[in-house]
Amino acid sequence: MDARDRLRRYLEQRRELGESEFLLDTLTVDEALARLAGALSPSRNPASSVDRLSAAGAVQDPPPVRAPLVPPPDVAPRSGGPVTAGVGADWRTALAGRGPQDPSGDAWPAWMAPLGLERGVIRGAPVLSPEVAALSALGDVVEAVAACTGCALHRSARNPVPGTGHPQAELMCIGEAPGADEDAAGEPFVGEAGKLLTKILAAINLSRDAVFIANVLKHRPPGNRDPSPDEMQACLPFLWRQVALVRPRVILALGRISAQAITGSAQGIGALRGRVHLLMGIPVVATYHPAALLRNEAWKRPTWEDVQVAQRLLVAARAHDARAAGGA
Ligand code: SF4
Questions:
Q1: Which helix (H) or strand (E) segment is 172 a member of?
Q2: Fewest 10 Å CB contacts: which of 49, 73, 108, 212?
Q3: Ligand 1 pocket, residue 32 CB under 6 Å
Q4: Which among 74, 112, 71, 165 has a CA at the least distance from the CA of 277?
Q5: Residue with the nearest Cα to atom 4 of ligand 1?
Q6: pLDDT class for 38, splitting at 50, 70, 90?
Q7: Which superfamily does CATH assign the domain made up of 73-327 to?
Q8: Which pTM value belongs to this model?
Q9: How many angstroms does the Cα of residue 261 sit away from the middle of ligand 1?
Q10: What is the mean pLDDT of the chain?
């Protein structure tokens, strides 16, 4: 790995942690990446380490500069008040029939209290178009994604990657967007990051077949760049519908973009993990993306802690269901 790759990885890791300020020569992360890309004039700080790397010929073939993520307008954090629209006409009924989830979507389940977990963002049901709300089965979502022209990504992608897994999974894993391997296969998490996700799931006694895995975006952004706000706004309704149809007990948000999209928060993954959020009454645990773990082994321990929280939630939800069934 050359100096350019090492520096790029370091910068991307800092940004993944939600840090916009950079400690090297007073540059921000984006400014440093822009300089790596040769997109900014070096006049601001000609003696910076980045410039020295460039001058030494170590900085070549720069990566694309990513735009900062802004939460799309239809997924603003819930600030209280009644749920005014759903992710499909049947979602309240569906959630009400699945144990511990609060069908109103805006109240913490009582069964979570003994776990003593810090609480984060509460989100009710995002507004959907009548067409997406009418998708009554996961297969309908697959067909709708395959036919979607809601953003330009369908033109450059090889295959749609709508998501796959158990239709009544207890755990739903949500990543960011398909990468090259997923684009080729039409399935999420099939590359090295996917193998690591499989190991993570196995560590809490879940097979991939037992969970449902999807991404925020259903088509690959060129060059694996971050999704744009417009792309997320266009694509998220499919994810909301999948969540309502699968009705998992727990959602595991993998990576900053997934966590931000689900919570509607602009905070980095470092701030969003360590708390339990609520989406449509379903507990959400945010953690690092498996691809980030491949870049930084130091994040494996906090990821394991997050996954254990998800496991505790699953166990508590199952116990609640068992008690409810016993008392019925
Ligand atoms: S990424 Fe989402 S919104 Fe864009 S074309 Fe694909 S399915 Fe449609």
A1: strand 171-175
A2: 73
A3: no
A4: 112
A5: 151
A6: low
A7: Uracil-DNA glycosylase-like domain (3.40.470.10)
A8: 0.72
A9: 15
A10: 79
